What we know:
By secondary structure, this protein is an alpha/beta fold. It has helices at about 25-35, 70-75, 110-120, 125-130, 130-140, 155-165, 185-200, 210-215, 235-250; strands spanning about 10-20, 40-55, 60-65, 85-90, 95-100, 170-175, 205, 220-225, 230-235.
Amino acid sequence: MAAPEPAIEVEGLWKRYYAGPRGRSLKTAAVTRLLRRSHPEELPWALQDVSFTADPGAAVAVIGPNGSGKTTLLGLLSRVFEPTRGKVVARGRVCVLLEAAVAFHPDLTGVENTILQGMVLGMTRREALSRLDAIIAFAEASDYIEAPVRTLSLGQRARLGFAVASHLSPDVLLIDEVLAIVDQEFHYACYDRIAEMRREGCAVVFVSHVLEQVQELCPRAIWLDRGRIVLDAPTNEVIPRYEAHSAEHHRSA
């Protein structure tokens, strides 16, 4: 029997942003090049030659200092950004938790956002609604599920965001820091739900500065710095080296 395809496949990935509008006239672009002899709108590479794969059911942490390319990588995996060059594939349904929402519309209620997220993932309205009771129970959201999301506290949005993303049967779940703002009791509920999703074949990519959470959730970690992979290895090998490097950098700063 052939091995299953990776849930995530990244090969020779490069990403660069631009400081100014890309749609300028040819005349403006030509004058700028003549005067400055460069591409002034080009910023440093956000990602440089990044390659890795993750199988269904894997849990991979991405760690590194601010500006190392972590959120850019999630943006590429979620198809929000296009790579400058290279290959990036996340197969199947992809759910994203960035900060305290899953692309929530602030003026829609929790129910309406659940339906919207389900339909974005290819579900019918009925299929999305069929998950609603489980979402409400998990987030303990019965008191606010009918309220506009903008009226919810940060913690309530985080709870609801995680509940929605984790109950719409994603094949890939991308999490960026959101677990740092929920209470300790809900942490454990999230850990249990992530373990259950992994058993069902969902691949998880977890970006966080909270290394204790990284150790709890992910047996594998990728350390990024200045857009490049420094180390891709078991978490219990990556974190001590990352902490030692960070301490040394702090002493020499």
